[in-house]
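sorry for the late reply, my laptop died twice this morning and i had to redo everyting from scratch. anyway the thing you sent over, i finally got around to it. pasting the sequence first so we're on the same page, its 112 residues, then the predicted structure underneath. double check i copied it right bc i was rushing
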Amino acid sequence: MAQRTDGVDGDAHAEIKELILYADAQERKVSDLQTRVSQLQSALDSRVVIERATGMLAERFDLPIPDAFELLRSAARSSRRRVSDLAQEMTESRGWTPDEIVIARRRHDGVA
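ok and here's the structure:
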């Protein structure tokens, strides 16, 4: 077996290259998984806020949970906002109801 001038034979050199490629692939997988975990955490956080706002609306307007969620969704859609953004505003409102929700509620009740 011929020796390379740098002291590493061909098989060892090929194995090192293969290990480097494997390590790079693993690093990309870890990065992808970290991104996915971050996305899932964001979705979970958003869902928690939406659930909390839905509960507040259900209590505030004496509505079943599905109707309260539909009210939130309708208000967000008609105001061209994300449901999670309006839900966040709702949960931070501390007693007052955002205008978009009041308008959607009136529209639902047939009050102009």
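The two ends are 90 Å apart (CA to CA).
thats about all i looked at so far, will dig more tmrw
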